[in-house]
Amino acid sequence: MVNYQDRLDRTFAALTDPTRRAILARLEHSDGASISQLAEPFEIKLPAVMKHLDVLESAGLINRKKSGRTVTVRLRAQPMREAMAWLHRYERFWSASLDRLTLLAESAEKATRRTER
Amino acid sequence: MTSLTLVRRIRARPQIVFDAMTTAEGIARWWGPDAGPVLISESDPRVGGRYRVRFRRQAGSEHECSGEFLKVVKPEHVIMSWRWKGGEEDPAESRVEIRLRAIPEGTEVTFTHAQLDNEASRQSHEEGWTGALNKLEALFATGVSGQ
Lengths: 117, 147
Description:
Number of helices of chain B: 4
Low-confidence stretches of chain B: 118-133, 139-147
Mean pLDDT of chain A: 84
Largest sheet of chain A: 3 strands, antiparallel
Number of strands of chain A: 3
Largest interface: A-B, 40 and 48 residues
Oligomer: heterodimer
Number of strands of chain B: 7
Number of helices of chain A: 5
Structural class of chain B: alpha+beta
Order of helices and strands of chain A: HHEHHEEH
Structural class of chain A: mainly alpha
Order of helices and strands of chain B: EHHEEEEEEHH
Strand content of chain A: 5-15%
Low-confidence stretches of chain A: none
Largest sheet of chain B: 7 strands, antiparallel
Strand content of chain B: 35-45%
């Protein structure tokens, strides 16, 4: 199993490079792209683009699928999406709960002060 | 893997906030995602003690969660495990940590709910995925606007 910390480190390392961020941004708005399409906007050679894709793939941010002579690169958003869904659900749950807790504790505080007088 | 942290400032002393958060009577009055009622509230807030909360959402569905108190330091620190009954909403065990700090106007509550994938993720849950995800979203946003 890949260690959580390693995974986080790899994600951040992958995101520190502007070319890799641009590749991800490009993939976010397309249903996959070929390597030459991805290389097109950059003034770098294909092997350099391949290296960037290696880094992104090992961080789990993209996957590559070969069909015939074309390699299609896709954003792998599922792990991110799952994490986001979890966060949003519990944020709603606990925000509402803590709002009520605040009202309860503050009225208990007032009641306690009255009896302390 | 994922963790959520909420900070609240409450105009009440830590002891009052602590009791409201950990006693069965307190929990019955605030726990849940909406104004639906708490149906069962049991709590034994000491290390090794358990809690169980069953509530009904306004939409009508009932849900139950329970767990064990892993750390209890009155009135400043509580850690408890968390699991949904039946596991239908989220099968994994997670962890809730509450820190209370006295401030001039009352209490600052730092509330963390962390998903547990494995021991390594539990130990580093403070760093959480929230930051990573926010950062990624921000990067996507700048990448897109820069096109």
